[in-house]
Amino acid sequence: MAFNTFSLFYIGIVLILFYLINPSARRFLLFTAGLCYSFICDRYAGIAVTVTVMTVYMASRIIGYLQARKLRIPAAAVTVISIALCICSLAVFKFSARILSLIGSKDALGIIIPIGFSYHIFEAVSYLYDVYSGGTDVQKSFVDLGLYFTWFPKFISGPIEREGGFAVQIRNLRNVHLNDPIRWYNAFTLIVFGCFYKMLIADRLKGMTDTLFAIPDAYGSIWLILGSLAYTIRIYCDFAGYSMMAAGVSLLFGIRLVTNFDSPYCSRNITEFWRRWHMSLSSFLKDYLYIPLGGNRLGNRRKIINTMIVFAICGLWHGNGFNFLFWGLLHGIYSAVDSVLREHGIKKFRTGMTGRIITFVEVSFAWVFFRASSFTGGLKYILYIFTNGPCTDAFNDQLETLIRYPVIRWVILISIILMIIFDVIQYRSGTSISAVTASLPLPAGLSVCMLLLIAIVIFGNYGPDTNNTMIYMNF
């Protein structure tokens, strides 16, 4: 969901009703709240998710009916057709505008993908596949299945949940009690850390990165390098911050979302990076694309081909420009090289601090094409890094245009240092920084949260004139 004043009011109203009504009616309340929120966000998103729920519900019941009667071939046919329809519907929204624009049609301007549609389709594909393969039971309750798709904290940007685990939590909603201080405290820490990552780092870096990528020819190479690093930090803090806030809000209702980020920039190689970055998407691509393609069971050459296919599709899922495809293929190449190094027992470039630096540089380089408006724009940005010169004499003047107020510069710098410390603690402890904080003695944990909260209130980037939408709302 979009975390703004209206969303906070909406969460508050739903939360009050959740604990006031009969526990047996909570499922209906949350389904209704999610459906209403989808229409409030975007009426097309509301229509799209409603049609998705109805279609997937009917298809899964048919698959379950056919399997109960041992009709495997018809059940497989219905599964393939249903999944194909889901993927085709996503492809229509993703690529029709691009195709129409290439042929010069004005209709391309009217095609906009509904908010959250990509995530709903991936969840639909995983659910239908799991029903057919026996990974989950057929959901007979339309309300429960609808709540799985419309749960409003994850409606806009995920994470991509699996229906089986989510259904168990839905059935347990009646056992969620108001008097549960540990759960409330854990939710509070998640929300505070999420706001810190989003509002003090990602949103504060937005103006700087947008300016540098819009007119890279006007800035020196030092600033362009800093801009690529800033976007590397920004996209992580933006999405990880959102994921933590969504998880925190969900926990207020007794629902635990899957972990979506786990200190990815501490990774020693690109393979580890993709185990820690957008983990719900990585898991989806592995289970429903890489493994069905053959995974690593058919030899090294086929393994590399499968890896390239997966990352190409990952790139196209993020956008229909060649820059997104190139971003995906770059990661495919990184992963293929890492796989070869691992096969030959070469550890120098994929372990320790050397591996971390190499991985961070690889990821930062690829983000340039991800952020650029086009593939050509990404190439020009890289070219300007080598041709613009350092422009050290104009460094301070350019600093004034990018980050005007000195206090904001210090806020950004200190916040990034704290973020690095938090991520290192999280990486070494093997659990989330919010969980680490919640495990501290109560006075210490509350002190950390309150200090972050005060910093957010004083220095956070928010207000009616700011545009702090999540980056991944576009995907």
Low-confidence stretches: none
Question: What's the number of extended β-strand segments?
Answer: 0
Structural class determined from secondary elements? mainly alpha
Average pLDDT score: 90
Work out the strand percent.
under 5%
Number of alpha- plus pi-helical segments: 19
SSE pattern: HHHHHHHHHHHHHHHHHHH
**Count of domain modules:** 2
The value of Rg in angstroms is 23 Å
Helix content: over 70%
What sort of overall outline do the alpha carbons produce when their principal axes are compared? globular
Taking the sheet with the most strands, its summary is: none
Jot down its keywords:
475 residues, mainly alpha, 2 domains, 19 helices, globular
Describe the structure.
There is one protein chain. The protein has 2 domains: about 5-175, no CATH class; about 180-265 and about 385-475, no CATH class. It has 19 helices and no strands. It has helices at about 5-20, 25-40, 45-70, 70-100, 115-135, 140-150, 165-170, 180-215, 220-250, 270-275, 280-290, 300-320, 320-345, 350-370, 375-385, 395-400, 405-430, 435-440, 440-460. Helix 3 (about 45-70) runs parallel beside helix 5 (about 115-135), helix 6 packs across helix 7 (about 165-170) and helix 9 crosses helix 15 (about 375-385). The protein is globular, with a radius of gyration of 23 Å.
